[in-house]
Each structure stands twice: as structure tokens, then as C-alpha cells.
Amino acid sequence: MSTDVKGYNGTTRPGDGPGGVSGQTSSTLLWAQWLTIIVLVYLLMISVGVLSQGFRAVSGGSDGAAAIFEFANNPLVGVILGVLATALVQSSSAVTSVIVGLVGGGLPIAIAIPMIMGSNMGTTVTNTLAALGNIKDSDAFNRSFSAATVHDFFNLFTICLFLPLELLFHPLEQLSGYLANLFQGSDDLSVSKFDVVRAITRPLISEIRDVIRLLPGGIDGIVMIVVGVASVLAVIYGLNILLKKVVTGRARRLFNAAIGKNGALAVLSGLVTTLIVQSSTLTTVLIVPMAGAGIFTLAQVYPFTLGANIGTPITALMSATAITGDYQVVALQIAIVHLLYNGLSVALFASIPPLYRLPMRSAQALADGAKRSPWIVPGYIAGVFFVIPGIVFGGQKIFDYKNPQVVEAEANKEVYEPLQQEVEGKRMRIE
């Protein structure tokens, strides 16, 4: 039996209601909105890929990262230049390949570990940029910016804790060396051949890159950066609007059941999501518009981010098992250092409540400040990821403070170049 409801003129119209024409229209509209969200998520992946390609073209990719690391002549500078190299290259596999290649060429692992710590933070610049997509809505921006920067602050405080410990007691170096020798010769566990996200996005990213490269004057890298940033901001803005409309009622309950029930479940969700998409950067970028739309709170996003932080070194470790020859142990040790660093940091923060809350409070304070003064946002992004590291790099370069061990390892081309190319081909990542 059809449901009768009053029309606009006060009369009843047979067929309207949940089972009638309006119900069908509402259902069709909902499906169309969800389909649009799926398309926007795909476009977000494409935009991040184009942005990465642009940064890589401008910075020189692996060669640019290697040139930066030549000036890492002490652990603190190594951390700072790790941030700069990864922020500029925007390809964690390229930066990882350089670090593995340098260690294979003779660079002591003790010098490489601070580079890994810095690189781990440098990858967070993308999700921080993504938060700018909500800049027109102050409340949405406050939520998304705090959700994006909580990852930054976690990495920053982790460096502050673990760098002194590593310099004094060398736990990461010693334990990773033992485990790498233990796992050497293990079966190929690489999941790169199952990288579905790369398979569905790489063709379009390559087409866009090839079209932009037709521009004269060698400005293709800059154009790709501009296109990538503009696309990310536009897609995030669209996602924020649509998610507010569709993630209500049952859909909101489902999302909260997957992430919002408790911290342990959120960590597991972030870990599994990262293992699927094989990129913690992409995982955290995807959560930013959901935070902006009010679907998740900062307290829910934070443990999800921690899970993503653990996910990438697991895929990197799997990729390291695919490295062949005498230098597999080198790749394994770098991957294990990364896994130990991220895993132990999450365990430490989770076990000490005041320490656990510190990144959330810092991110919220920064977001509240940005809400009052929008200049804080570009100042923060430029200062933390580019200006301060750039000043350090510039000072090192002016005075030619190169690390002779890095230069010597890079000059060992018989080992460095083949190993670097193989590692990048296996898509090991520091994120």
C-alpha cells in the first residue's frame, strides 16, 4: 500500500513517501553522491601522484636527495636534511633507495638512522597541505588541520625522544643488525606486485605528466606542483561538502564502528588501510576530509594515524626481502630500523598517557592559532618543511661541510648505483 503525504498545497499525493517516487529519488541521489565520493577519492590519489611527480622533477629525484645527504655531517643535521630531502623529492621510495644505496656503499648505519628519522617526518607535508582544502570553512579547517598536523607533532616528539637514545645506546642499530642477519635469505614477501592503487592511478598520472612535459621552457615540474596542489585542495573541498551530506545515520555508525570505538581498533584500522594502499601518506590524506566533515574527532584520527605509521615499514620490510644478492641484509636492516623506530615509538607513547596526549594538544593549539591568524598555516608548512631545513642545507653548502663518509659511499658506484636502482624498483618506502 502506498503512503499518502501532504503535497505543497496541502493535498495528499498517492505514491510519495519512503516507498514511493520521492523515496526512490532520495535513494538514487544517495547512490549518486557516494559514486561521486569514490570518483573524488580516485582524483585525490591522482592529484597526490601528480604533486609527487612535480616535486621529483624540480628536486632531481634520487640524485637531488643524494646531493642533500652529502652535507649530513652530524646526526642533528642528518635529521633536518632527511626532512628536507623527503619534503622536496616527495618520493619516499627514492629517498629510501638513496639511504640503502649509501649504506651498501659503506656508510655506517649509525649515520643513516638520523636520516631515516628526518625522512619519516618529511612525508607528512602532503596531508598538511590537504587540510588547506577546507580553508573557507573555519570550523572544518580547524578540525582537518589539527587532524593533519597531529602526525607531524607525533613524529617531531618521537625524534626528540629517540635521537638522544640512539646516540647514547644505539638500540635501533644493534637490534636491527641482529634481526637483519636473522632474516637474511628469507623468501620474497614483497607485496609490490599487488599494489592495486598504483595500478589504477599510474597510467593517468603518467598521461598527465607527459602532457605537461610538452610545455616549453622546462617548467613542467613547477606546473605539475601547481596542478597537484590545486587539485588536492579542490578535491578536499568537494569531499568535505559531500561527506557531510552522506555520512549520517547508519553510515556514520559504520565508520565509527571501524575506527571510532576505541584506540586499539583505530590503530588496527590505520595499519590495515596502509597495508592495502601501501602508503601511509595516502592513508592520512584520505582521513583529513573525514575529520574536516566532522565524521571523526581528533582523538579518533590520532590512533588511526599511529596505525598508518606502523603500516608502511611493514610493506617496506616485505619489499626488502625482494632485494637480491649480497646486499639484501643492508636493505633489510634499513627496513627493520624503520619498523622498530615507528613501532617502538607508538608503544612508548601509548603506554604513557601524558606523552600520548602531547601531540594532540600541540596539533589542536596550532589549529586554534591558525583559525585566528591564517598566516600561521603557510608559515608553518614553509618553515618546518622547507625554510628551516633549507637554511641549514644552505649553510652547510656555503661552508662546504660535506660528510666524507657519505661522499665516499656515493662514489662507490659499483655498489651504490645498482643497489639504489633495485631498491627504488622494489618501492621500499620511508613514510
**How many helix segments?**
19
Kindly report the average pLDDT value.
Answer: 87
Q: Find the structural class using helix and strand composition.
A: mainly alpha
Percent in helix: over 70%
Task: Give the strand order of the largest sheet, numbering strands 1, 2, ... along the chain.
Answer: 1-2
Helix and strand sequence: EEHHHHHHHHHHHHHHHHHHH
Strand fraction? under 5%
Number of domains: 1
End-to-end separation in angstroms reads 58 Å
Number of beta-strand segments? 2
Extract low-pLDDT stretches: 1-18
Mind explaining what this structure looks like?
- The chain is mostly helical and 431 residues long.
- The chain contains 19 helices and two strands.
- The chain has a two-stranded antiparallel ribbon with strand order 1-2.
- Helix 12 crosses helix 14 (298-320).
- The termini are far apart.
- Residues 1-18 have low confidence and may be disordered.
For the structure shown, list the relevant keywords.
78% helix
